[in-house]
Amino acid sequence: MTKPVMTKPVLAATIALALGSCGMGVYGPKGNDTGGIIPWSPENERARLAIAQDNCGAYGKYAVIRTVHRVYGDYITYECRFEPPLRYFRRDVTVRVRG
After folding, report:
1. Disulfide check for 37: which of 51, 61, 69, 75 has CB 3.0–4.6 Å away?
2. CA neighbor of 76 nearest in space, from 32, 16, 29
3. Which helix (H) or strand (E) holds 20?
4. 1 SS3 class
């Protein structure tokens, strides 16, 4: 039995639609031990730190979000560092107000 010729194009279109609607786009996040990029979307912006930490954690590092450009087709950039971000070392700060 032969398969219909239209099966392969329909399958390719279905896969492309599924990948395009998953929030990561066709290309998805890219990164290495120094940092990376995540395609911007509202869903990715909400999960940006988790996505970045998944990559950096593989190298025993901490993710630090550097830029977020809220435009489709642009990217969220992050950096991988050995030391945790400063917000994890937050200490009580005394604020003096001149009266």
Report:
1. 75
2. 29
3. helix 7-20
4. coil
**How far apart, in whole angstroms, are the C-alpha atoms of residue 65 and residue 79?**
6
Q: Which residues contact 66 (CB under 8 A, 6 or more apart)?
A: 35, 77, 78, 79
Amino acid residing at 75? Y
Q: Specify the pLDDT at position 86.
A: 72
Record the tokens describing residue 67, joined without a space: 């830029």
Identify the residue with better confidence: 54 or 88. Answer: 54
pLDDT at 98 over 80: no
**Number of residues that this document lists for the chain:** 99
Rounded Cα distance between 11 and 72, Å, is 26
For residue 4, give every residue at least 6 positions away whose Cβ sits within 8 Å of its Cβ, in sequence order, or none: none
